[in-house]
Amino acid sequence: MNLPVHFYPDARLKLLCIACEVLARPLYWSASQSPHQVDVRLVEKGQHNHPACLRGQLQEQIHAASSAGYDAVVLGYGLCGRATAGLVAVGIPLVIPRAHDCITLFLGSRQRYLVEFARCPGTFWYSRDYMERQAAGDSTAALGLGSAGEIQAEYDRFVEKYGRENADYLVEVMGAWAQHYQRAVFLASGLGDDSQAQEEARRQADRWGWMFEMLAMDLSLLHRLLAGDWDADFLVLKPGESILETHDESILRSSGWQE
After folding, report:
1. Is residue 115 domain-shared with residue 210, that is, in the same domain?
2. pTM for the whole thing?
3. Which helix (H) or strand (E) holds 111?
4. Three-state SS string across 64-93, please?
5. What is the mean pLDDT of residues 126-147?
6. Residue of 110, 91, 92, 108 whose CA lies nearest to 100
7. If you ran DSSP here, which 8-state letter would residue 166 be given?
């Protein structure tokens, strides 16, 4: 079909959604509700810690989609450590939510993210899809962070080598990062039984001395992404345009944007 950026409201599109695997259940649910044909392709979590590598992976898949009969590519990503800055739409439109990271996608809007950030900037975020994709032995799982899992693995090695009491002291010294956080939030999707993941997040909060809260996900932003309801909360790029970072509340803009 290869439609222009401004689609007809009654058009039925074939969309490719390329997204981080931490969004798996919410994305599959949103795809099931979409009026369009949606193929979901998941990318391994944690790649935002290596933005150049992730950018290369995403660009390769965007390029391949242009000759695979899709009408548009939609990204289940935000800026994500600047990994999406510089991506180019190839052949068909490219759509991305205006978000810094996946937390906004889980919360449903930039506004809700700002409210939660204002309430407690030092928040560790947990979700079931993220936690169950941890490597074996890595029981600390927080969205958007790589250091916690590394410290947990180091802690296990210290216990084996020095005993638990000495390990606790060493990790306390190493884990000064934990002092920057006061709250752990588990994001409940409402899609299946999250109870086991919730309890693990609560145990981690108790371990680090953080208050624990549970918040319901708002999947409306993901739902609109896959439904083709692309208003000002989304950046829609024409073929040949690239994603640029704005350093303001809009977060992202197109290289074709003009004041």
Report:
1. yes
2. 0.83
3. helix 110-119
4. HHCCCCCCEEEEECCCCCCCCCCCECCCCC
5. 65
6. 110
7. H
